[in-house]
Amino acid sequence: MIENRSMPRATVMPVLVYKDVDAAVDWLCAAFGFTERWRAGGHRAQLSYGAGALVVAEPSARGQGGPGAVLVRVDDVDAHHDRARDRGARILQPPTDQPYGERQYTAVDHAGHRWTFSQSIADVAPEEWGGTSAHLG
């Protein structure tokens, strides 16, 4: 996998939806010991804990409407998309290059859960796409 400063090494990341992303980030870091990796305005943030990571998003970010979703990093997003589509996954967004150095597609499984599969295609600092890196001391 290509190294990308906008993505952690974690391969599976839950996406948790909160009405107030800033308050959620502050609380999760203070209460559970997460570390902020980056923040995009007040609508999205990425946190890490050890080798794991999670995304905190407002309800409207990337079509998130429920309490959460899952982001999975894969080596070949196009092949993964084709396999999922051919086996009945409902595709919400086909593989698309994103400004933060990822190529992603989003699907819904048979129970209605949203899954985004992501392949790193470039090393991009959060500031290059409008995010703000956390300055860890």
Walk me through the structure:
This protein has helices spanning 21-32, 77-86; strands at 12-17, 35-40, 44-49, 52-57, 68-73, 90-97, 102-108, 114-120, 132-133. It has 137 residues and is an alpha+beta fold. It has a single domain (12-133), classed as 2,3-Dihydroxybiphenyl 1,2-Dioxygenase, domain 1 (Roll), CATH 3.10.180.10. It has a nine-stranded mixed β-sheet with strand order 6-7-8-5-1-4-3-2-9. A hairpin with a 2-residue loop joins strand 3 and strand 4.
Q: Structural class of the helices, strands and pairings?
A: alpha+beta
Distance between the termini: 27 Å
Q: Mean pLDDT, rounded to whole units?
A: 86
Radius of gyration, whole Å: 15 Å
What can be said about the biggest beta sheet?
9 strands, mixed
CATH fold topology: 2,3-Dihydroxybiphenyl 1,2-Dioxygenase, domain 1
What's the CATH class, please? Alpha Beta
Physical arrangement of strands within the biggest beta sheet: 6-7-8-5-1-4-3-2-9
| Content of β-strand | 35-45%
Shape: globular
Structural domain count: 1
**Helicity level:** 10-25%
Please tell me the CATH architecture by its name. Roll
CATH superfamily: 2,3-Dihydroxybiphenyl 1,2-Dioxygenase, domain 1
Spans of at least 5 consecutive residues whose pLDDT stays below 50 are: none
Please provide the ordered H/E string of secondary-structure elements: EHEEEEHEEEE
Annotation field: number of helices: 2
Total strands? 9
